[in-house]
Design a protein that fits this description.
388 residues; alpha+beta; six-stranded antiparallel sheet; five-stranded antiparallel sheet; 10 helices; globular
């Protein structure tokens, strides 16, 4: 694994905007950064990232199975009691999932370490699946990359295949796509997924989360009062379970992507449970529930809310003192601790690997860079290649 500095393509901004990639720059700061790229050997991709992602996913599903069978663990995961049966039923029926992104610390030497599993509402999808592939094709054509350079990226093909599988097993109803207003990144991600679903043959439509309403019978409707029978929502389950509309989830008959059992899989309480079930696994880091902190022998730990996103409310502790932290609104439901493992450092930047799953298949990676040890929503996206 290495980083190469190059000159960006002259037309990349106009290309991005022509394809609807309007969040390439956010709040005046670059988000898409093609002044550099990361290069991996095929062995690094297959041995260190692809195979471990598949194995880690199966291990995570074993944790979900264990949590579903234990009221004590459901309580530890801060799942509201009134939704236990709905979530357990979703797991028993194996309601289908769509995609996920595991965040890994990896520097090209030694095993990748899993930092968390973004299994409910992962973003950076469009740029991972589509725009970095356009970059690869252009850089091969202009001779910047050596012939035979490739990319670990079958995300788009697998998404379309996954939607096609879902279409065969679901009733012939429109598939709604929904996200919150006032976020270009979320809107772009959802539009991309809607395009993939339509490519797979779905009749799809969009509504903002804020527009969703209720019928007198308790069914959900979109902003045009159309019934929502099936929906992909880029909106976290921990919000849905606690908000006013949450009381109608069980009876609404709406099929959700992602399914409700992902409220367990995306929960950071997953991390100490993985360490309990698979201690000393090479791709895991020691992790502890808050009331087990006395068991931690590590001098440097990362404190994470069990519900949080985009690196918010994370603290890196050394000898019990915070040496780095991030702001945010999370932490009310509890925290866990994970042993600190440094991200790969190149110059003044730290690199985080996002390893994508579609269904249960590993499908590609993304690389995010930041000058901080804590990767957050504005951390830069950097494309990658597999060396010829």
């Amino acid at each position: 694994m290495r980083r190469e500095l190059i000159s960006p393509r002259a037309h990349w901004q106009s290309q991005a905007e022509s394809y609807g990639f309007n969040f390439h720059t956010m709040y005046g700061e670059p988000y898409w950064d093609e002044s550099r790229y990361y290069a991996f050997t095929l062995e690094q991709i297959e041995r260190d990232l692809e195979d471990p992602t598949t194995e880690l996913n199966q291990m995570c599903l074993e944790v979900v199975d264990k949590v579903m069978a234990s009221e004590e663990l459901l309580t530890r995961f801060a799942i509201p009691r009134e939704h236990w049966e709905m979530i357990a039923r979703s797991w028993r029926l194996r309601d289908p999932s769509l995609y996920a992104r595991m965040d890994l610390a990896y520097d090209g030497n030694g095993p990748a370490k899993m930092l968390e599993n973004n299994a409910d509402t992962p973003t950076s999808l469009y740029e991972s699946a589509f725009f970095q592939w356009l970059w690869l094709e252009d850089r091969l054509k202009d001779g910047t990359l050596a012939p035979g350079s490739d990319q670990y990226n079958s995300i788009q093909d697998k998404l379309i295949e996954r939607f096609a599988e879902l279409k065969k097993s679901w009733p012939p109803v429109p598939l709604h796509f929904a996200c919150c207003q006032d976020t270009d990144e979320d809107r772009g991600t959802v539009q991309y997924l809607q395009d993939c679903a339509e490519e797979a043959g779905f009749d799809a439509c969009f509504t903002f989360i804020e527009e969703i309403g209720l019928t007198p019978q308790g069914g959900f409707v979109d902003g045009q009062d159309r019934p929502i029978h099936a929906a992909f929502k880029l909106y976290p389950w921990e919000f849905m379970l606690r908000e006013e509309f949450g009381q109608h989830l069980n009876k609404s008959q709406t099929r959700w992507l992602e399914p409700s059992w992902k409220s367990v899989l995306s929960n950071k309480a997953l991390l100490p449970m993985l360490w309990k079930l698979f201690p000393n696994h090479p791709n895991l880091l020691p992790a502890y529930f808050a009331d087990e902190l006395h068991l931690a022998g590590e001098s440097k730990l990362v404190e994470k809310p069990i519900y949080s996103r985009e690196g918010a409310n994370v603290r890196i502790l050394e000898g019990g003192q915070a040496v780095a932290d991030s702001d945010g609104p999370y932490g009310e439901e509890g925290i866990i601790y994970q042993a600190f493992h440094p991200l790969a450092r190149f110059g003044e930047d730290y690199a985080l690997i996002g390893s994508w799953l579609v269904g249960d298949e590993a499908a590609g990676i993304s690389v995010r860079e930041d000058s901080s040890l804590i990767t957050q929503d504005l951390s830069r996206f950097v494309p990658h290649i597999i060396l010829p």
